[in-house]
């Protein structure tokens, strides 16, 4: 028994180390460690800006690889500096907006400091991320959730404004990544905020702000 426990601990450690140096993702209990993100390359910025657009027609037969999932999340709000700051700025650097990835297999919380996804709810809940018909089949639906308590701005109008701007910066990062990769995306205000909040058991200070669909576009 003792040997089994030791074996299991060593095996888990091996998986972690392996994953950190490879492009494979590893699922450990309810955490999915994402592949390492390559920070070079992509389309020149002016070209990506020229191509940025909202796309709502997708090719649902094409999957999004784990590598692209890791990259799109990193582009949205991944850590880009050793001090823990991110690709998107945030009010008072409070990093009060969290990113949930709603995938076919479940709803996951993105953890930038670990380059990982934490399972929140198992199952296909993509259709709960919006009212438009494409959301239920699109490969990825991102949901931006702001935490008023974490932000700590007492005026409620200011608080919602700041959280909205924080989410907007992330959304534009994601738009530019999608433009650069040839992915389709659209940011959406149309999400039943209350219902989605209940689904993932948000507390009253946590607010669903926006959703954003990502999938390969229809040719
Ligand atoms: C805050 C915000 C909310 C939006 N909500 C929706 C939405 O619910 N559904 C949708 O199809 N598009 C939505 N859009 C996308 C806009 O319709 C789109 O950006 C606009 O038509 C301009 O098109 P473009 O993005 O291709 O430049 C939203 C955009 C923003 C900035």
Q: Residue share in helices?
A: 25-40%
Low-confidence stretches: 4-24
Average residue-wise pLDDT: 91
CATH architecture: 3-Layer(aba) Sandwich
Which sequence of SSEs, written as H and E, runs from N to C?
A: HEEHHEEEEHHEHE
Counting structural domains, the number is: 1
The chain-level structural class is alpha+beta
The largest pleated sheet is described as: 8 strands, antiparallel
Q: Reading side by side through the largest sheet, how are the strands ordered?
A: 1-2-5-4-3-6-8-7
Number of helices: 6
Shape label: globular
What distance separates the N and C termini?
A: 56 Å
Give a quick set of tags describing it.
alpha+beta; NADH Oxidase; 219 residues; 8-stranded antiparallel β-sheet; binds flavin mononucleotide
Tell me about this structure.
The protein has an 8-stranded antiparallel beta sheet, sandwiched between helices. It has 219 residues and is α+β, with helices and mostly antiparallel strands. The protein starts with a helix and ends with a strand. 35% of the residues lie in helices and 22% in strands. Helix 2 (45-51) packs across helix 5 (156-181) and helix 3 (66-77) packs across helix 5 (156-181). A hairpin with a 4-residue loop joins strand 4 and strand 5 (116-122). Mean pLDDT is 91; it is low at 4-24. It is globular and about 45 Å long. It has one domain (35-215): NADH Oxidase, CATH 3.40.109.10. Bound molecules: flavin mononucleotide.
What's the quick description here?
Helix content is 35%, strand content 22%. The protein has 219 residues and is α+β, with helices and mostly antiparallel strands.
């Amino acid at each position: 028994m003792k040997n089994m426990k030791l074996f299991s601990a060593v095996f888990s450690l091996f998986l972690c180390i392996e994953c950190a140096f490879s492009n494979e993702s590893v699922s450990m209990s309810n955490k999915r460690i994402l592949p390492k993100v390559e920070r070079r390359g992509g389309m020149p910025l002016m070209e990506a800006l020229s191509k940025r657009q909202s796309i709502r027609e997708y090719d649902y037969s094409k999957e999004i690889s784990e590598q692209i999932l890791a990259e799109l999340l990193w582009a949205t709000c991944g850590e880009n500096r050793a001090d823990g700051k991110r690709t998107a700025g945030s009010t008072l650097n409070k990093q009060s907006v969290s990113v949930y990835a709603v995938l076919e297999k479940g709803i996951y919380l993105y953890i930038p400091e670990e380059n990982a996804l934490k399972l929140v709810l198992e199952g296909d809940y993509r259709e709960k991320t919006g009212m438009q018909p494409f959301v239920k089949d699109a490969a990825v639906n991102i949901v931006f959730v702001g935490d008023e308590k974490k932000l700590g701005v007492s005026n409620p109008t200011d608080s919602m404004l700041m959280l909205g701007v924080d989410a907007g910066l992330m959304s534009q990062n994601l738009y530019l990544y999608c433009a650069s990769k040839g992915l389709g995306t659209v940011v959406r205000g149309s999400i039943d905020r209350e219902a989605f909040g209940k689904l993932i058991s948000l507390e009253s200070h946590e607010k669903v702000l926006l959703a954003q669909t990502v999938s390969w576009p229809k040719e």
